[in-house]
């Protein structure tokens, strides 16, 4: 409860720092915000090419839209978590020299990536509208649940970000470990393929252990298939979010006092 | 709850975060599930520090590098947690530990003012209200809307200071920041800090500029290897510190308060004297005398007096300064000077001596005063510093106010007329008053 109160108190700080990050990032660059979209769009192009032209066996139609629905939430998660591992070390001066609420740092990373995620949405909607116009997909009312799903995912990402940001100060290797795990995670999350089409039962069990699986599947359900996520997935998402944010606060609190020294 | 900061037996040990003392492997990190971190070695930085700073007090912390000054400041600010002990702070704290620490080089000064202000605990609206004043104080002018990376380091620091002092804290922690920037800005900072002190802000500051401690602080603490070496009157603490730093190996003074053979001193209230110094040269006796050489404790305004120092030289010196300070009873310094300031270049002090500070006309208003007398080296290390060594009372029938009565007269022309001059009020000596009256009767 205290943590939530202090979060509320720091909301202006988090908002101001997020705005600062975004401004600083795009100042002086010509394409600006487009760069945060470049990577997901590149992935989109590559996988579309690979799975529709090179080995067109697994294709879900329209494949680009399917891919897009999964890549955006994954990019939000992986980019935010990866950057969060460095967030405290990168702001060592603040932690050591200013009375600064350290938990704001990973949260600022999460919120600025959330902004990127939200800003990418219009492009997804445009693609969705195009395919709906072509009659390849139908848009359903469940798309209205999108903000709810994004909120839930943000809570999940925030918890993970808080854990890794504080732990990374003491365990420097964490950044490299996470960078590699993210590469693996991309394939262990049903983004470029449909989870139902995975034949190996072992692999499917493994996929279900990945906490990002229910989130990505839920995005695909809402945006691509136009159906409600499965109750099991909803339950898992709620559970993962709560566990993640709870762990985030506990771990962060535990390490908070050592941050200024260990950094 | 009159204190602003109170420390109770605060100790701090830094853990050594070498490679070995971290988790050796990821496995060990995972196995030790409670995440208890057990470093192998620790370095004590502060040992059992206890003190309290009253509201509105200025408290200085001095000591050589690595003595724990900054650690102490960071603990008070809450950036670091003490290993043991307790800290209580009443009121809103602002810390000037590193100016502009939160600035982002890519965004403008204007944006940085907002971000930095929010970091220091202001709301957006509070910053709006202070914005012009901040910009004005920092003097960055046209650079306000330029990215901070284009600023000179001086501008950077000035902006940082400007934001920090506009937080309106109850307690201000300052770490060495007054020494940055050019003379002009440095003076501006000191003035601002004095203004804050005047408004009742509690100041806790760490500095190597001992003059600042003497001038700004009400009390001081000297930290030596993390422990309290001396605490109290800033002049005395600074002096203790200088003694130590100069590494004087001479015999320390055997007694702090030498028995004074002069019984006359008891004529006034008991004198609370504070005295310190290395004792190589001693002010055996300090008295106020009139122009005939008689000792005085009470005198009329405008008397001709001298402060007489009886100097005993135990170890000959070639670097020495005699100093005198006159203070009003309320602590205001009326006047202070020394031989160094007045251009006397020391050659040698090789035998007992007598030094007189002669004032042909002591133009003070009525009140009680005390005198500090000292003999010290040119860099301020005291041989003998006697604070409040003597007290005297100035009597006057004219109830003018202040401390200094310049020699003066009134001149009236035109339509300003006075019926007569009240000779009693004018403090005119009786025989002269009589003569004046006589002459008036005649006319």
Characterization of the model:
The complex is a heterodimer of chains A (263) and B (443). By secondary structure, chain A is mainly α. Chain A has one domain. Chain A has eleven helices and no strands. Chain A has helices at residues 2-9, 11-26, 34-54, 63-90, 92-97, 104-133, 146-170, 174-187, 201-209, 212-225, 231-262. In chain A, helix 3 packs across helix 4 and helix 4 runs antiparallel to helix 8. The longest helix of chain A is centred in the last third of the chain and has 32 residues, at 231-262. Chain A is globular and about 60 Å long. Chain B is of the alpha/beta class and 443 residues long. Chain B folds into two domains: 3-13 and 42-244, Rossmann fold, CATH 3.40.50.300; 263-395, abc- transporter (atp binding component) like domain (Coagulation Factor XIII, Chain A, domain 1), CATH 2.70.50. A six-stranded mixed β-sheet of chain B has the order 5-6-7-3-8-9, sandwiched between helices. In chain B, strands 10, 12, 14, 15, 17 and 18 form a six-stranded mixed β-sheet that branches. In chain B, strands 2-1-4 form a three-stranded antiparallel β-sheet, with helices on one face. Residues 248-271 of chain B have low confidence and may be disordered. The chains are: A mainly alpha (263), B alpha/beta (443). At the A-B interface, helix 2, helix 5 and helix 11 of A face helix 3 of B.
- Low-confidence blocks of residues of chain B: 248-271
Average predicted confidence as pLDDT of chain A: 87
Radius of gyration of chain A: 19 Å
Quickly give the structural class of chain B.
Answer: alpha/beta
Order of helices and strands of chain B: EHEEHEEHHHEHEHEEHEEEEEEEEEH
Largest interface: A-B, 30 and 34 residues
Sequence stretches where pLDDT stays below 50 over 5 or more residues of chain A? none
Number of contiguous helices of chain B: 9
Based on Cα principal axes, name the global outline of chain A: globular
Number of strands of chain A: 0
What is the multimeric organization of the chains shown? Answer: heterodimer
How many domains, in number, for the residues of chain B?
A: 2
- Main sheet of chain A, how many strands, which sense, barrel? none
Number of helices of chain A: 11
Biggest sheet strand order of chain B reads 5-6-7-3-8-9
Distance between the termini of chain B: 70 Å
Helical fraction of chain A = over 70%
CATH architecture descriptor of the largest domain in chain B: 3-Layer(aba) Sandwich
């Amino acid at each position: 409860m205290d943590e939530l109160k202090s979060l509320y108190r720091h909301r202006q700080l988090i908002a101001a720092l997020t705005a600062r990050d975004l401004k600083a990032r795009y100042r002086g660059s010509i394409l600006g915000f487009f760069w945060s979209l470049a990577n997901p769009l590149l992935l989109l192009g590559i996988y579309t090419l690979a799975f529709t032209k090179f080995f067109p066996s697994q294709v879900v139609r329209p494949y680009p839209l399917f891919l897009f629905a999964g890549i955006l939430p994954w990019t939000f998660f992986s980019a935010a978590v990866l950057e969060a591992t460095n967030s405290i070390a990168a702001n060592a001066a603040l932690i050591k020299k200013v009375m600064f609420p350290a938990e704001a740092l990973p949260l600022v990373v999460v919120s600025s990536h959330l902004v990127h995620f939200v800003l990418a949405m219009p492009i997804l909607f445009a693609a969705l509208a195009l395919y709906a116009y072509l009659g390849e997909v139908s848009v359903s009312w469940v798309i209205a649940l999108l903000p709810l799903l994004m909120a839930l995912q943000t809570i999940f990402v925030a918890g993970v970000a808080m854990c890794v940001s504080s732990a990374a100060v003491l365990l420097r290797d964490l950044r490299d470990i996470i960078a590699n795990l993210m590469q693996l995670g991309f394939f262990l999350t049903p983004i470029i393929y449909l989870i139902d089409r995975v034949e190996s039962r072992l692999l499917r069990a493994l996929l279900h252990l990945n906490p990002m699986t229910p989130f990505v599947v839920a995005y695909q359900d809402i945006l691509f298939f136009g159906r409600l996520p499965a109750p099991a997935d909803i339950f898992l998402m709620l559970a993962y979010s709560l566990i993640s944010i709870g762990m985030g606060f506990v771990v962060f609190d535990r390490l908070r006092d050592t941050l200024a020294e260990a950094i | 709850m009159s204190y602003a900061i109170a420390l109770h037996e605060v100790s701090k040990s830094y853990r050594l975060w070498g490679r070995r003392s971290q988790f050796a492997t990821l496995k060990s990190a995972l196995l030790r599930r409670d995440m208890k971190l057990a470093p192998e070695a620790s370095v004590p930085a502060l040992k059992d520090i206890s003190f309290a700073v009253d509201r509105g007090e200025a408290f200085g912390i001095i000591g050589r590098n690595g003595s724990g000054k900054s650690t102490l400041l960071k603990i008070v600010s809450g950036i670091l947690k003490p290993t043991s002990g307790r800290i209580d702070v009443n009121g809103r704290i602002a810390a000037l530990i590193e100016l502009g620490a939160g600035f982002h080089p890519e965004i403008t000064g204007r944006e940085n003012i907002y971000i930095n202000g929010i970091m220091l605990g202001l709301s957006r609206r509070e910053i709006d209200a202070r914005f012009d004043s901040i910009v004005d104080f920092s003097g960055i002018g046209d650079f306000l809307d330029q990215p901070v990376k284009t600023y000179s380091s001086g501008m950077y620091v000035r902006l940082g200071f400007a934001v920090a002092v506009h937080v309106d804290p109850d307690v201000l922690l300052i770490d060495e920041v007054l020494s940055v920037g050019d003379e002009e800005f440095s003076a501006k900072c000191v003035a601002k800090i004095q203004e804050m002190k005047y408004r009742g802000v509690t100041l806790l500051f760490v500095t190597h500029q001992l003059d600042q401690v003497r001038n700004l602080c009400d009390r001081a603490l000297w930290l030596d290897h993390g422990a309290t070496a001396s605490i109290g009157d800033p002049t005395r603490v600074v002096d203790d510190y200088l003694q130590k730093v100069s590494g004087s190996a001479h015999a320390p003074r055997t007694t702090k308060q030498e028995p004074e053979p002069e019984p006359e001193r008891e004529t006034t209230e008991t004198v609370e004297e504070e005295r310190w110094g290395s004792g190589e040269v001693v002010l055996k006796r300090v008295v106020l005398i009139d122009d005939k050489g008689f000792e005085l404790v009470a005198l009329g305004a405008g008397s001709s007096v001298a402060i007489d120092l009886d100097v005993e030289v135990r170890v000959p010196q070639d670097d020495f300064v005699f100093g005198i300070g006159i203070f009003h009873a309320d602590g205001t310094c009326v006047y202070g000077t020394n031989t160094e300031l007045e251009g006397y270049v020391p050659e040698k002090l090789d035998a007992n001596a007598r030094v007189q500070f002669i004032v042909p006309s002591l133009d003070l208003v009525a009140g009680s005063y005390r005198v500090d007398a000292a003999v010290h080296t040119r860099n301020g290390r005291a041989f003998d510093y006697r604070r409040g060594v003597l007290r005297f009372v100035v009597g006057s029938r004219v109830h003018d106010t202040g401390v200094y009565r310049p020699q003066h007269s009134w001149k009236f022309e035109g339509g300003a007329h006075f019926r007569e001059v009240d000779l009693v009020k004018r403090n005119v000596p009786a025989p002269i008053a009589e003569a004046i009256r006589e002459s008036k009767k005649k006319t």
